[in-house]
Structure formats: structure tokens, C-alpha cells
Amino acid sequence: MPAQTTIEQLNIRIPKKLAQELEALAEVEHVAKIDMARQLLWEGIARRKQEVALKLYEQGQVSKSRAAEVAGLSLWAFTEVIEQRGTRWDYSLEEAKQELQRVLSDVSKEGTALATR
Questions:
Q1: What is the pLDDT of residue 107?
Q2: How far apart are CA 61 and CA 63, in angstroms?
Q3: In this structure, what DSSP letter does residue 6 have?
Q4: pLDDT at position 90
Q5: Which residues contact residue 53 at a Cβ distance below 8 angstroms, ignoring those fewer than 6 apart?
Q6: How far apart are CA 35 and CA 22, in angstroms?
Q7: Residue 50 and residue 116: Cα distance in Å, rounded?
Q8: What are the pLDDT digits (tens) for 39-98?
Q9: Using CA atoms, how far apart are residues 24 and 115, in angstroms rounded to an integer?
Q10: In sequence order, what are the residues at sequence separation of 6 or more whose Cβ sits closer than 8 angstroms to the Cβ of residue 52?
Q11: Is the dihedral of CA 84, 70, 104, 58 positive or negative?
């Protein structure tokens, strides 16, 4: 679960059965119900972001690197997700050039950030 710098309160109503499932899972994992709910929310958001990114990529609406951004993953991690899912992916020379330029730009930015510390 990512570090929380600011907190916002969210009140939701859930079916009783869902609340019971949450309570049971929290007990099994020996955590507070609210902590279990937060963890499941983070996991659900991460999973949904991957699904949205895969859908956009499969439909050809975004490049692989843009889909990786949407998913909140590195390009390499997103490539693994694509392979695990069995999604067919075409990789044109132009896409390869664009992604190489992007990676080089990111590396350059990281190097600059490290040098200024």
C-alpha cells in the first residue's frame, strides 16, 4: 500500500454480506477491518488500472508505453502483463523508436535528479 501523505475521508454504504466478508477476511489476516478495506481498495484500483490499460492497448487506442503509464507500471512490467494475458501485441519500428526516446529521456531525467541531490 502506498504511503499516505494526505488523507481524505470516504463514506460508503455496502451490502451486509460484503461487510461480513470483509470482517472475516480481516480476522483471518489479523488486521483491522478498516486496514483490510484500504488494502483491498488499493489492490482493486491497481487491478482496474491494468484492465483499462490492456483494453486501450488491445483496441489500438494507445501505445504500449502509454498503456504502461495508465496501468501505473514500468514498460517492462506491463509487457509481462501482456504476455501473461496472452494478448497479441504488434510492435512497429516507429513505436520502438518512440519508446527508446522516452526511456532515454527518463534515464536522463533520473540522472539529473540524482546529480542534484
A1: 78
A2: 7
A3: S
A4: 61
A5: 62, 67, 68, 69, 70, 71, 73, 78
A6: 10
A7: 33
A8: 999 999 999 999 999 999 988 898 888 999 999 999 889 989 888 887 665 666 676 677
A9: 49
A10: 70, 71
A11: positive
